[in-house]
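Replying to the earlier thread about multi-chain prediction with a worked example.

Input:
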Amino acid sequence: MIEVNERIEVASTPQAVWAILSDPSAVVECVEGAVLGDKQDDGSFNAKMAVKFGPAKVSFNANVLVEYDAANLSGNVTARGKDGISGTKFKTTMHFKVEGQDVPPQTAIPIKAECELSGRLAHLIESGANLVIKRMTASFAEKLAERCGGAKAA
Amino acid sequence: MKVYERLSQAFKAEGTTNVFGMMGDGNMYWQYANSKNGIIMHEVRHEGVGLGMADGWARATRSVGVCTATCGPGTTQLATAFVTAARASSPVVAFCGEYPVSDDEYTQALDQAAFAHGCEAAFVRMGTPQDADEAVRKAFYIARTQSRPVLLSVPLDLQQKEWDDDDPYVPSTAIIPKRTVTPHQSAIEQAADMLMKAKRPVILVGRGAQWANAGDEIRKLAQRTGALIATTLQAKNWLGDDEYHIGISGTYATKTAMNLLSDSDVVVAVGASLNRYTTHEGLLYPEAKFIHIDPKAHVLLPRGKGADHYVQSDGKAGVAALEAELAKRNFKQLGYRTGEVKEKLANAWEDRHEYKIDAGTLDPRPMCLALDDLIPTNISLFAGSGCTAGFTNILFRKPRPIVMPGHFFGCIGQMMPAAVGAVIASGMKPAILMDGDASTMMHIGDFDTMVRYKVPLLIYCMNNECLGAEYYKLDAHDMAVETSCIPTADLGAVARAFGGRGALCRTLDEVKKATAEWLANPGPMLIDVRVSRSVVTLPYRRIHYGEDE
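Result:
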């Protein structure tokens, strides 16, 4: 189980950040290698996501469900996917919240996530995958900050 | 004649010339008879090392390696070496004494059938004195036809019974038919159809292709189809003089190789099991169709899959037929064999990642490159399977009489025994072994065996004073790496204490000097090379640190 406990800080208002995070297609644009697919009847989305573990690229076909709590500017993301070649599967749950701050940068987004990789490849790349996911989180923060107005993630 | 004498005659008739192992009361009479029959005994300090040597003999010669251990505690020492030999598909017969049938409460009693089963070895028991011939023949028959280790269990008291049969022993070779599996023409035509549609083919060769002596045929097919040649780990460096040879396919591939392989559209796998490491769980070849040539009826691939097209054939016959079919169709293409690809391959093995080298140690990467240049190509190479294999398996690139990597069963410490067995099998031709400190220490006692038999093997112990695989994994998890660190004594001095030669080296110049001394007069020698922990192997950079290198 890979645990992510990150706090992204962005120099934009909480409302501006929420406007992006509450739009699944905008969120996906901030995730490197991800492409959003069709919306399903249950409100979830199909998605494709390519992740490089070392030089090898794993292409996941995924299903993503985002549940928003607009009153609290927070959300839960549940995603699961499978790579057809290596049989690698992932399951992720993530909780995020948009919080205003009195001191700059204006907004913080605490993120708590758990990601489970399974399949034979997962055992081989276990420790590397941990670092890959941390780098992806950092990249997401960077892209989100850019999208919020060109500011860099703190 | 006693039964133990007949058993010895039977082993001799099966072609046994050398036996590796340790004497005990369960095999001592048989060993005595062997000595009278001209069979050479190599007495080791640990029974598992004896089996490892027989395994090395078998891998180097593709003939049955023979080892021996006494009953009970002698036999249980064989465990790891048995599984390693089984995973290596090595034909080995282990003559093991067994507790007397007349004494169920014998101190050294052991259920040796259950033990063999747990160690993935076949089991043959001589149940009565009259079964001596049949038991030996069956053991060798299984080893030869199934290419696996066999535990031949012979009760002590039955060995002492009288043998009163005058019929000559009939060896297993007399009843095993010799034939080459030739391909079906329709299977070849289908493979040719697939190859004619391919723009970027790869020929992936394994030990089976080597054993079939299919090298010339593979080169011709590669030239005709414009294919890259890649090997499995076990066929490392084979056909390495081909200018479009890209090294190992799998964990030990360079990034250039991985990038090229991921573009391939057809892979012709010859005598390769295509295991999870060779294809990196299939990810190395995301778009490719597989043509699999192998003499077995069929080979199941990882995740319960099969190749897109399977050709049951001996490697040499199958590749020759495929090449002939394409020639008949006047098919020839450049494929991967372009100047652009050649340019990429020219720099494929460069590792520009810079590390700060720990004081009193050296960078193992330039050392491996220097040794591959310095050591003549008539000297064989053995590579251990620990962390340091990540340097050896990528950076030693020259074809040599024997290039034998480890990795069967993923255990450390098994390569020194295999190397010694293979060197003895090759007629005492000099060889080097690249291994790590934990592996070297595991069987350092049998450096004594190397000395007693004057085995011309030079062991480079790439000593980072830690359990490397665990060290880097702990580091990647931000855990205390010190728990994996174990200091060692000066192993060069240990080697000298055993009566061999040894050196402790902390610089490349010291390594070169010690190597030159050995080259001038090859014999048993151990060079303790202190290497920097800071330098991470390419596979570990990917696996443990997720680096795209």
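Chain B has three domains: 3-174, 185-346, 364-543.

Feel free to reuse this layout for your own posts.
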